[in-house]
Design a protein that fits this description.
- This protein has about 160 residues and is an all-beta fold.
- It has a single domain, classed as Jelly Rolls, CATH 2.60.120.
- About 0% of the residues lie in helices and about 45% in strands.
- The strands form two sheets. Strands 1-4-9-6-7 form a five-stranded antiparallel beta sheet, with no helix packed on it.
- A hairpin with a 2-residue loop joins strand 6 (about 90-100) and strand 7 (about 105-115).
- It is globular and about 40 Å long.
Length: about 160
């Protein structure tokens, strides 16, 4: 699992050519003294980091992409992650698989997406990655909306087997 708490991108990398990048941000949970819920995983006063796709007002429609290391699998895999989209019209978060041939990445295949329709706290997502006979990468893509907001991911995990 990659929770970005080591202040690095784990095995993920920014895709060159994007105007903006995914940025590591501290996960500061402000709790009331009697709040026992804690952060998105139920850990009171959890510290750590997450990735945020940050762009200014000049960036509506801009794509901010992050991709995994090359994966090889002939069995299904499940991608799980936490995400946050806020406020309305902040943008869209999507996940793709990207075919990788001889170091050249081509063919984006849509796997999952959500648009920022209302503000919410961290949500959990699952996406099936089908068994394939070729190498591929997982790509997270944030498309900046018309309002400056937050598109963020955390706790990214890819494991063998179907999503339960």
């Amino acid at each position: 699992m990659c929770n970005f708490d080591e202040q690095n991108l784990c095995t993920y990398e920014q895709i060159k050519g994007d105007i903006y990048d995914w940025i590591l941000k501290p996960n500061i949970t402000e709790l009331e003294p009697d709040d026992s819920k804690g952060d998105k995983l139920g850990n009171p006063h959890r510290k750590g980091y997450f990735l945020s796709a940050v762009a200014d007002n000049s960036g509506p429609g801009q794509k901010i992409r992050l991709r995994s290391a090359v994966l090889e699998t002939s069995v299904p895999r499940c991608l799980t992650f936490s995400y946050k989209l806020c406020p309305n019209h902040a943008g869209v978060l999507s996940v793709f698989t990207q075919t990788d041939f001889n170091g050249s990445s081509i063919n984006l295949n849509h796997v999952w997406s959500r648009a920022a329709m209302k503000c919410h706290d961290w949500m959990n997502a699952k996406a099936e990655l089908p068994a394939v006979s070729y190498v591929f990468r997982v790509v997270f893509e944030a498309i900046v909306g018309s309002i400056v907001g937050q598109i963020a991911i955390d706790d990214v995990n890819i494991y063998e087997g179907n999503c339960l």
